[in-house]
Amino acid sequence: MVDVGFPAVFDALECGVYVVNPLGGIVMFNARAEEILGWRRQEVISPSQSRCFCCAKGERGVDNGLDAGCLHDGNAGVDAGPFVRHLLTRGRTRVAVGVRVRWTPAGNGEAFRVISFWKVLSEEGEALMRQTREVAEEANRQKDKFVSLVAHDLRAPLSSMVGLMEFLLDDPEGSLQPSQHDLVNDMMATGRSLIELIEGVLNIGRLKSGKIIPDKTFFDLQFFTESVIQRVIHLAREKQITLENHIPTDVRIYADMSLFAAVVQNLLTNAIKFSRPGDVISIRQPLSEGGTAVEVCDQGVGIPADVLPKLFNVSEKTTTPGTAGETGTGFGLPFSFDIMEAHGGSLTVQSEAGRGSVFCARLPQVKPRVMLVDDEAMDRFMVRSVLNQMDLEVLEMESGGEALARMEREVPHLILSDVNMPDMDGMELLRRLKQDDATRKIPVILITGDDKTETRDLAFRLGADDFVEKPIILHDFLPRIRHHLGG
User: Fold this and answer.
1) Which residue has the higher pLDDT, 402 or 338?
2) Are residues 311 and 421 both part of a single domain?
3) Are 362 and 386 contacting, i.e. CB atoms less than 8 angstroms apart?
4) CA dist., res. 468 & res. 444, Å (int)
5) In this structure, is residue 328 part of a structural domain?
6) How far apart are CA 73 and CA 438, in angstroms?
7) Are 426 and 448 contacting, i.e. CB atoms less than 8 angstroms apart?
8) What is the pLDDT of residues 122-134, one digit of tens each?
9) Which of 24, 311, 407, 436 has the fewest CB atoms within 10 Å, measured from its CB?
């Protein structure tokens, strides 16, 4: 049986070693393995179903180019190697290694798999690989810059052309013949499609270069999805398709509202495009994932199995005409995938040709963090009692100075501050927060027993997002909190 009580022995080895138990969990990961692959042992050690470095699927659901077969599978008890393989590093690059697999009895009829590996490239080879990679990355940057410049230069004249055609159609004298009217309409549709295509190229370029950074806030998911449905309801009605919103009430979600709306709208538009008259499209939450995911489910034509792995790859041409001949740019799903990735989430799909598709946009679970700043313990208790009804994490501070110090290591999503406090009052705290780029976007609600108009005016001039008077009235206070935190 493998004794995992001697990590120092494994750490002294010159090769990387990890040990897989009968449940597929990694129970040992030595220092050299950390050095070669970049993973920390606390990230990979698990009692069952641990991370796989040899046959992992790429983040877009397509094969990442690693060698076929899995080191964790194969005939139990049969040693193998040495042989050359590629392993996936924490930085999503491949490293060529020599591998040897050995089996060690677990004492219960099963066995541990001991996988040892070592680099097979020389230092010169690694330097050449780094140099090649840097050249490729620079070429890719120059390509993105060129595409962006060309796209910008094309968008302006195309927009002008579409505008001029709209002017022709709106000519009050009606100088166009019916056949000419239809021709101009077709030209406008083509122009708008080209503008949409250019915008897709620019958006993907912005995400890849980090120019689009999600500005995350909490918001109510049902209200949000209903507003997105209203943007596309006319498309569904034209095709006699029903849209159903099954998102429950009082569910909050944490995302960039504008970017996440682009994702959901794209999924709904695609579902409409590939559905038929009489079909139903539903937007719902997966039962097991609470408020962290949104599914768009359709009963349409589905997606062929050979297309699924390419669906989110911008370099693959996967767009096809819809059930009514609708066309698309092919950028919508890759752009949506990148938006979800920028949020730290994911976009996945399940589909069967002829039986519809289910797209799922998942976001990380985030619990709202509220900082309550008040020097009076009883006042903090009363406010906290109200906040405890809303499933929030509450940080209690006794002064403005203490609040600023805490924010250097833990940033809240909302700040509730008393105005009259010793050391640093609420107005000074507000002023400092709004002058600091790192904290100026955090919503601040001031709470005070001072009902003077001058106090309220000063608070809003300094950038307060809301103002609440003591004593707190519950039915007035809770909606103000929900406005900033959703739910």
Assistant:
1) 402
2) no
3) no
4) 11
5) yes
6) 48
7) yes
8) 555 556 556 666 6
9) 436
